[in-house]
Amino acid sequence: MLLHVGAFHLDIDSKQLTPWHSLTPQTRLLCTLLIVFAIALTPNGRWLTWVIYGLGVLGVIGVSRVTLPVLLKRIVVEFAFVGVVLLGTLFRGGGETIWSWGSLKVTTVGLVVLGSVTLKALLSLLMLNVLTLTTSIPALLNALVILRVPPLLVAILASMYRYINVLLKEFNAMRTAAKSRNFGGSPRWQRQVIGNMFGSLFIRTYERGERVYQAMQARGYQGVPVVTSVPSGGWRDIVSLTLTAIVALLGQAIYLLQ
Amino acid sequence: MHHNPIAIEHLCYTYPDGTHALRDVNLSIKANERVALIGANGSGKSTLQLHLNGIILPQEGTVTVGEWPVLAENLRVIRNFVGLVFQNPDDQLFMPTVWEDVAFGPMNLGLRDEELIERVCQAMQAVNIDPDCYGSRSTENLSGGEKKRIAIAGVLAMHPQVLVLDEPSAQLDPRSRRQLIELLQSLKLTQLIATHDLDLALELCDRTIVLSQGQVVFDGKTEYIMNDSAFLVEHALEPPLSYSRPYCLLEHTPLGSALSGRYS
Questions:
Q1: ipTM of the complex in this document
Q2: Cα–Cα distances in Å, from A100 out to A29, A89, A97, A111, B47?
Q3: Is there a contact between B79 and A217 if contact means CB atoms under 8 Å apart?
Q4: Are A37 and A72 found together in one domain?
Q5: 3-state SS class at B163
Q6: What average pLDDT does the structure give for chain A?
Q7: Contacts of residue A162 in chain B, CB cutoff 8 Å?
Q8: Closest Cα in chain A, distance from residue B85 (Å)
Q9: Residues A77 and A102 in one domain
């Protein structure tokens, strides 16, 4: 399926020893979120800001020593999804028209918006992918709980992570069973059958949810997930958070100095 | 250790769609007994087991676990007393890593830090799973036997007095099944094992309860009932495989020595 290579083993670079890895998961998460918000909240057209942020992101990539081919492969896949949205921004009205065809107009404003959104998407995706490559999902979920995200929400995310593979396997099993009985024919029939498969998968998932809940109750679940141990930070965490904040502010300030 | 951990009297249960799952079930299990619960599909075994830790509350009749009747206010202590291992380990292993899953029960009991680590390590060692090797592995990519053992470890970590197992040897290869039998033999707990694997019941349990269409039709010695093929067939069961072939090796048959001479 289209999901990333390596059958859900997302964090292939998490067992290294670099300054980035010596930070606690919650610090890494906070730095990532800070930079992503700074990148996303910059108004369109501020190219220098993104140059500075881009240097910061490249710095993190260098320090964390992630496997570049894997990183680039994932970016390409994610961009395929984002690209469809990006194309829509090209046809924004306003400014001079550079090229037109019927009612579709490519304007300067449209180009600026396209360039900005592309850069924003690229830099944010790079940073987020570095995070998922270097931090295991259970550690990330733990970090979310420490950062006071509602524990029930984190439990839902954990269940999703745990069971998405199971669902994929069940769907593949259904597809194989259909193929073994010569599944084919008109596209309309195929769509109908796959729709039915999704429906039956939904019902099975619902019943599985009931059984999992019973298993949780059988082991004393009271309704609120419990927090596990908190990895303690150190001077590196404070330094990296400060550095991230400085880079974020610098990027914004550069236009004030002009 | 409570002397009479499970006492069920006149238990009846009907599903919302009208199926009579249990009809007037009476049984009592003494401490340290290993009891096999056998019956055809749909005879009510799972329904009965779900009553034992309060997932289903009795509609008619009483279920008493230790000194507590199964009522909504006693559920917490009952679930510490009775550990239920479900049939499909995928339904039971719901945390991202093995360590977190085994620690789920003790954490809900309120254990932390040193005590928690000790409890989890103890439980994993009881089922022969190395905590260092398996602790941070994902619960997804394990073999069936490993998943079953970790599911049992997760229940053992709560230190129950009664272990209730639903089809423990289903989908296990012969070696995993043998390891499971040895494990259950080594655990000094009261056990109620619902199974279709009659050879496992014969090997592990002295006492067998046969359920048929929601009623207890036999409650007594395992060897007695396993010999009674007519009774078993009447209730959609069969004698165990170890009883249907009187001789395991050809050499043991009356003409064995002559036959083995011809084939060797």
A1: 0.72
A2: 44, 15, 7, 13, 70
A3: yes
A4: yes
A5: strand
A6: 83
A7: 94-96, 139-140
A8: 8
A9: yes
